Amino acid sequence: GAVVSQHPSRVICKSGTSVKIECRSLDFQATTMFWYRQFPKQSLMLMATSNEGSKATYEQGVEKDKFLINHASLTLSTLTVTSAHPEDSSFYICSARGTSGRATSTDTQYFGPGTRLTVL
Amino acid sequence: GENVEQHPSTLSVQEGDSAVIKCTYSDSASNYFPWYKQELGKRPQLIIDIRSNVGEKKDQRIAVTLNKTAKHFSLHITETQPEDSAVYFCAAQRYQKVTFGTGTKLQVIP
Fold it and tell me: Of A7, A36, A118, B105, which is most buried, counting CB atoms within 10 Å of its CB?
């Protein structure tokens, strides 16, 4: 299947700093990318949906100024957690959907491996 | 908005037995229903999916059924093996909007 990478896999930062997480589709062009947050033993919570070249659509309750999303190309989306605080500690997972390359299904989301963020 | 309920939250079966996980959804316009398997600390992996114009789909030991009228769909795993142990998520999708169920932790006892 289609491959999505995510970097870094794990990051520890001090409170008040910003952290950038990258999500890349390696063998297909991702027309849409999604960012999720997952708490231990819980389901995936959609934070935002981004289409290449346009502003992200945030879910209700997600602060767009705190979680900055940039989908600058068809293979790269970034999530920046600004002024991170301990309550932002979580597992962040991106997914991508596209129609070219190995992502032949227009509906299927392919997930990245996730980023474990710990804010001290 | 869409609401997806998933049951049971935990499921233990003996190796070789079958496992069934059920989901219901609320938005009749949802037309794509994927199932994901997530092992601890890893990414969700698509294991099977079904579209709204199909009632059943099978892939080796895994099958999914969809009842559009009742708005529920189920995952069936036959001849379970220890490596089937994981958390399984159902999802209902309409256009770009995907809503996940709360997950089922499946434990296959050798």
Answer: A36
